[in-house]
Amino acid sequence: FFAEKHSQLDTSNGCATNFASLQDSGDQLTEEHVTKGESTLSITVVGASGDLAKKKIFPALFALFYEGCLPQDFSVFGYARTKLTHEELRDMISSTLTCRIDQREKCGDKMEQFLKRCFYHSGQYNSEEDFAELNKKLKEKEAGKISNRLYYLSIPPNIFVDVVRCASLRASSENGWTRVIVEKPFGRDSESSGELTRCLKQYLTEEQIFRIDHYLGKELVENLSVLRFSNLVFEPLWSRNYIRNVQLIFSEDFGTEGRGGYFDQYGIIRDIMQNHLLQILALFAMETPVSLDAEDIRSEKVKVLRSMKPLRLEDVVVGQYKGHNKGGKTYPGYTDDPTVPNHSLTPTFAAAAMFINNARWDGVPFLMKAGKALHTRGAEIRVQFRHVPGNLYKKSFATNLDNATNELVIRVQPDEGIYLRINNKVPGLGMRLDRSDLNLLYRSRYPREIPDAYERLLLDAIEGERRLFIRSDELDAAWDLFTPALKELEEKKIIPELYPYGSRGPVGAHYLASKYNVRWGDLGEA
Amino acid sequence: VVVQDGSVATESSSSEEAKDVGVLTIPSLEADKVVAESDGGEQLSTVSITVVGASGDLAKKKIFPALFALYYEGCLPEHFTIFGYARSKMTDAELRVMVSKTLTCRIDKRANCGEKMEEFLKRCFYHSGQYDSQEHFVALDEKLKEHEGGRLSNRLFYLSIPPNIFVDAVKCASSSASSVNGWTRVIVEKPFGRDSKTSAALTKSLKQYLEEDQIFRIDHYLGKELVENLSVLRFSNLIFEPLWSRQYIRNVQFIFSEDFGTEGRGGYFDNYGIIRDIMQNHLLQILALFAMETPVSLDAEDIRNEKVKVLRSMRPIKLEDVVIGQYKSHSIGGVTYPSYTDDKTVPKGSLTPTFAAAALFIDNARWDGVPFLMKAGKALNTRSAEIRVQFRHVPGNLYNRNSGTDRDQTTNELVIRVQPDEAIYLKINNKVPGLGMRLDQSNLNLLYSARYSKEIPDAYERLLLDAIEGERRLFIRSDELDAAWALFTPLLKEIEEKKTTPEFYPYGSRGPVGAHYLAAKHKVQWGDLSLDQ
What we know:
The structure holds two protein chains of two kinds.
Chain A: H1 2-11, H2 25-36, E1 39-46, H3 51-66, E2 74-80, H4 86-94, H5 107-116, E3 118-122, H6 128-142, E4 146-153, H7 160-170, E5 178-183, H8 190-203, E6 209-212, H9 219-229, E7 243-251, H10 260-285, H11 294-307, E8 316-322, E9 324-326, E10 329-331, E11 349-354, E12 366-371, E13 378-385, E14 407-413, E15 417-425, E16 433-441, H12 442-445, H13 453-463, E17 469-470, H14 472-491, E18 497-500, H15 508-515
Parallel strand pairs in A: 1-2, 1-4, 2-3, 4-5, 5-6, 7-12, 8-18
Antiparallel strand pairs in A: 6-17, 7-13, 8-11, 9-10, 11-12, 13-14, 14-15, 15-16
Chain B: H1 9-17, H2 32-39, E1 45-52, H3 57-72, E2 80-86, H4 92-102, H5 113-122, E3 124-128, H6 134-148, E4 152-159, H7 166-176, E5 184-189, H8 196-209, E6 215-218, H9 225-235, E7 249-257, H10 266-291, H11 300-312, E8 322-328, E9 330-332, E10 335-337, E11 355-360, E12 372-377, E13 384-391, E14 413-419, E15 423-431, E16 439-447, H12 448-451, H13 459-469, E17 475-476, H14 478-497, E18 503-506, H15 514-521
Parallel strand pairs in B: 1-2, 1-4, 2-3, 4-5, 5-6, 7-12, 8-18
Antiparallel strand pairs in B: 6-17, 7-13, 8-11, 9-10, 11-12, 13-14, 14-15, 15-16
Helix pairs in contact in B: 3-13, 6-7, 7-8, 8-14, 10-11, 10-14, 11-14
């Protein structure tokens, strides 16, 4: 009946990925054994008491369980230093589990079933003995079945390698696969990232490392390739011939709020740009891959990154938010955060212009902008098209022709949507032109809740689908682009432009844009 | 005419131009437009609009209401007079009662509507006369002069009369009631003949009395908001023009459906049939606008030149590329709907098509091989007019494995819905949100009613205003008309000579299945009949 279950997953509820590449032997094994009903999956969340684990990982695992996307036989282990009983872990988890709005049925039951499969093991992150203990417990649960093991490292980067060493040496699966999910930061520059990769590879092969960039799991980022490659109407426009510039914009409407300790060591460029925005850029700009297989897609992404010029200091604007009074309320400056050093120069905002030196994109500015404590919260991709050559309607435009070009906007969050700004005639007598949107608002088209990025990524890791994970050479190429500028910023102690909490960010971003004849799409109009 | 707020430019410019009084001479025809524009606001010029056939249906339902709407919006010149002309005996007051019944105020601007109506009606007069009587038109001329009160007089005649008396009315109006010092223009509406020969004869007769630039042939589809917007979409958006050719477009569909039959008024229709009534004019005009090359400018002559080029590049339609149908009676839910020949005004045994589908081809570099499909019918399941552009498949589609449905059906489609519920939407493929990878078609949407709260003006308003302003862009030039007839005449002759029997389809249905076979022959699938539509 396992076979039945599995094929059901594949076809009806869309849980199983359709792309699982079955090339490596580990996967082959899994597939075979799942169908024989003898395999089991153990997911160990290392750092189980942390924030990410509580808020994202356990809820995502539950959602996958609820939707029937986890294998029949699985166990979830929490691993951390704190002493906890299974019951205490379950209590902790259950407080963050939620049911999808559209599927409340039997949710309580399901939760109970899920929690019964959750266990806790307390241990040090660098103790091989403690991991050997974990291994025993895992074996007990696995009860002689083919064992597949997934480790999710939800811990600070300085103990990544220790954990990987212990887990790999003492708690690897003997007859199935062992995979490790790690999340940023992957170093803070080329050297430290290279060092991390080198250390990880002492204990793991490239195929075992699943580097998460959770932006790649967002619905509209996933849809980006679908839009490009399954619609005839977009591909002809996707080049320097028609695209004037591309903007990748990330804004948060809150600051570090007392948790700036980690952030201050990295800054917004490392925290958002070098990974999330650059990954989206690579997906946006890549050539058509040979297939949708992970290696083909990642190879194309690496090509984009390697065609890019390293970011130059003069193409970057950095900012930091300062305190601001508004409506009787005082919002703190970045350095008011007690966890942030008083004279920190860490940017909480950055804008950058980047270029891809290849035949498709030569001369097209790719602008990135990311900031905390801004007036709005959102992530979007904006594609501004060139002007219409020899526009017949020039006379009809009251506004600047330059502002009336087409724009494709992909809103990643919140309120997922796609819209294409077009010029059309204002209905009525006479001839007046106007911009309107051809709209697709996900909320109205798809009433179902969109799964969290972590659900997708966890499922992909379980299934061995590597498309949305970062390969080592991608990571190296990404750091090579940002490392020189980051070094220079820090060596020259460049002072960030201050901007008020809740504002639209430093004006420097506009000057940077205007240097490349670009106008930010998100600040242009409502 | 490029005017900021859509009303006539002259309204705002009256004070500056009031000084320039003495320069007016009898304008040459080429200068018509200039004069119209610069004089409208002066105290000394006036427009008289004579609706010939004032007691007819079109006049009551469309022309007078459109004139009132223009007046309400401040688009008519300061001084104007409206005359109804028909054979019935009527007083001015009786005409006003008749007109007032059909006037409505725009939903969004009810203020002062009653007052405005009264003011408007005061400017409406009636003159009774025969359509072929010089004396009666002389009498009309006298009355017009009286109202014009010595101002520079511009005169617009709207011929809302049967085609057999077009020429008579034009002859009388032109020789006895033309303006002496301003312009005289005549609006005529279809039918413009019933084939190349009769159309040419009509044009020749009209030209005995009128210059080409005095003749305003209305095709009211060209006045529809979304047809007007077609050129804006194409030429003011970078993203559409690169796609606008055989390289990316698989086929184009022009679809017109009515959900009612002739309903006791088939007398006129039976002489013409759906091909002449809808295809040869409305749909073909939209096709020409759709397919034309970029004109040198937006001036009327430039646009019409490009349209003629399209028509002249087209192959005459072959009989085997046409399917005709006629509706038959049908009972649904206890109600029986009549067949076409049940209409008392239609001869028994009539073979006149009430439905037609046709495949047309443009043999030029841009469109070679792309089927342009037309479909028009009465008594169908729905009422609408739309343009559908189906794009080619994605070459080497990476997602082939993921489309559960036929790859051919999941191509992009641009739909321009002319009526009802004006809208533009682009069908795109996207990922169904959720885990896994399933593709799906969604629409990038622009629904006019959601975006624009203003009521969209009726096509007749736009066209009347354009005629008053001398803007000829939306009117059919003689050579366009000739080219249009040249395409359809051989086909129509053949259908009639061979007495081709139309395929019957039930009243209220989706039309004869033959339309599907015609489409299939050219590897097309009708976009309006697909399930997800």
